[in-house]
Specification:
One of its GO terms (biological process) is DNA transposition. InterPro entries: Homeodomain-like_sf, Transposase_8, Transposase_8_domain. GO terms for molecular function: DNA binding; transposase activity. This is Transposase. With 88 residues, the chain is an all-alpha fold. It is 76% helix and 0% strand. 5% of the residues are buried.
Length: 88
C-alpha cells in the first residue's frame, strides 16, 4: 500500500475547511494537492470524523488479511483436489 503525505486526521481537517466555506481550488493551492486528490478524499472521507476514519482503516486492513487467508485456503483445496484425481 502506498504511503501518503497526509494522515486521516489531516485529510478530514482539510475536508472540514471545505465545509466551512473554502472552495476546492483554494484548498488545493493551500495544501499542495490536486483537484482529483481532493475529490477522491471527499468521496472516501466525506462526512466522517477522525474516529470513523480510523475504524475504516482498521476494517480495510482486516478485510485484506481475510482475503489473503481465503485465497490461501482456496489454493490448498485446489491442490488437494488435484492430488486426489491423479492416478497412483
Amino acid at each position: 500500500m502506498e504511503r501518503t503525505r497526509f494522515s486521516e486526521e489531516q485529510i478530514i481537517r482539510i475536508l472540514k475547511e471545505h465545509q466551512a466555506g473554502m472552495t476546492p481550488a483554494e484548498l488545493c493551492r493551500k495544501h499542495g494537492i490536486s483537484d482529483a486528490t481532493f475529490y477522491t478524499w471527499r468521496k472516501k472521507y466525506g462526512g466522517m470524523d477522525v474516529s470513523d476514519a480510523k475504524r475504516l482503516k482498521a476494517l480495510e486492513e482486516e478485510n485484506a488479511k481475510l482475503k489473503k487467508l481465503l485465497a490461501e485456503q482456496m489454493m490448498d483445496v485446489s491442490t488437494l483436489r488435484e492430488m486426489l484425481t491423479k492416478n497412483f
